[in-house]
Amino acid sequence: MSISKPSVRDVLKGQKYPAKVHAKKVKEYILSHLQSADEGVADGVIYLESQRTRMNEDNDQEMPFRQRRYFYYLTGCELPDSAVVYDLKSEKTTLFIPPVDPEEVIWSGLPMAKEEALQRYQVDDCLTTPELNSFFASSQTPKSVIYAIPNQISDSVSFLSFENKNYEILKTAIDESRVVKTPYEIALISHANTVSTAAHTAVMAAANSATNERELEALFLKTCIERGCRNQAYSSIVASGTSAATLHYVRNDQPLGGKLNLLLDAGAEKDCYASDITRTFPLTGKFTPESRAIYDIVLRMQIEAIESLKAGVCWDDVHAQAHRTAIAGLLDVGILKGDAAAIFEARTSVAFFPHGLGHYLGMDTHDSGGHANYADKDPMFRYLRVRGNLPAGSVITVEPGIYFCKFIIDPFLKDDKQKKFIDESVLARFWDVGGVRIEDNVLVTETGYENLTETPKALHEVETLATGGN
Ligand code: GLY
Ligand code: MN
Ligand code: MN
């Protein structure tokens, strides 16, 4: 499966969102995980609702809308207040969309018509939501099982015509099916990456004439919206100076004067699919020797990790190797001292690289199916959001970082088993670096990988861009 730039355009232009392929994957997961697959469970239907229009609790405005990913996966439909029924046996999809409400038309215009829905989405039939209960009640053969997700079923919906209800398996089935992407999904992620690259590049070029983080966040959003991506995959992190050591910094309102570097972690969303890109660059256009040394280590960690990817690789091993590379680099600059293997065993590098190497990416920024173990007693692996082997077709972020966060590092400096490995006098020169993270989105293939992120990251490219050059 290889998705190159021209085919991204072709895929997105010529085809519908592959809801049927997704539904079939979910069906196969359900049937292969239920013991009584040959005793009637296949004679059932999947039921999913879209997100509802919700109002602010204290006024008459709507809350920002975010489509439910479970519904989207089986429809590609962005409408609120809708539902879908997928019949496992016939593999027929019926979409239920809101009817015309004459009171609403003056405010919101006409809702989508059935004909348009049939043309836009990969569904076999389209009815309106008030027809849902009679649709279930009039089913020719009473279905034995309804598969649904708890707390995602409106009170008005009746499952009385079903002999059995299964509220356990559907969510897991979709979560697991989402790990391996279809070419269409990869094209959406790739498109989001292209837009985000334009936005990252614009921010790098503007940074040395900007005065506050706010201006750079605004420029990122403007660049994405102009290119058709109105939604962000997550709240942008625009962190100057030592704020870069706060992993999910979202204040984005501090002056840039006197700061060394900017860490920008931001990604556009395209039709519910995320990009998640981080770049760190010098606000003056030139890294200091300390910043450069850390940038070199993080870039090495990232390139090595990316180059080791292919189907079947164990993500835990890639993460551990990134720690080994961090240790070698930090020994070279003198922040760490002692034996590399002993430092690895002691987990000292967690003081500087406290998060996981990356996570699956898809409809969610931290996508489903990663099987993290946040209760892991080993601090090196506790925040690793993907555990185990990567399948071909998965998309994973590769985002090593090295940070100088007093709150994290100080306990190591007070711990007898750790402090012997850290040279405090060398470390003192590095606090102002803040933090460096470099993050790309990578497709895992049978034979290797394809990096979907083209945002410049080589040291000379970043320095040239950050001086306002192109
Ligand atoms: N932007 C959130 C993350 O990188 O995981
Ligand atoms: Mn990120
Ligand atoms: Mn990420």
From TrEMBL:
EC class: hydrolase
EC number(s) stated in the UniProt entry for this protein: 3.4.11.9
Start and end residues of each Aminopeptidase P N-terminal domain: 17-157
Pfam families in alphabetical order: AMP_N, Peptidase_M24
InterPro entries: Aminopep_P_N (IPR007865), Creatin/AminoP/Spt16_N (IPR029149), Creatinase/aminopeptidase-like (IPR036005), Pept_M24 (IPR000994), X-Pro_dipept-like (IPR052433)
GO molecular function, one term: aminopeptidase activity
Entry keyword set: Aminopeptidase, Hydrolase, Manganese, Metal-binding, Metalloprotease, Protease
Catalytic activity annotation: Release of any N-terminal amino acid, including proline, that is linked to proline, even from a dipeptide or tripeptide
Cofactors named for this entry: Mn(2+)
SUPFAM superfamilies: Creatinase/aminopeptidase, Creatinase/prolidase N-terminal domain
Similarity annotation: Belongs to the peptidase M24B family.
Functional note: Catalyzes the removal of a penultimate prolyl residue from the N-termini of peptides.
Protein name: Xaa-Pro aminopeptidase
Source species: Phyllosticta citribraziliensis
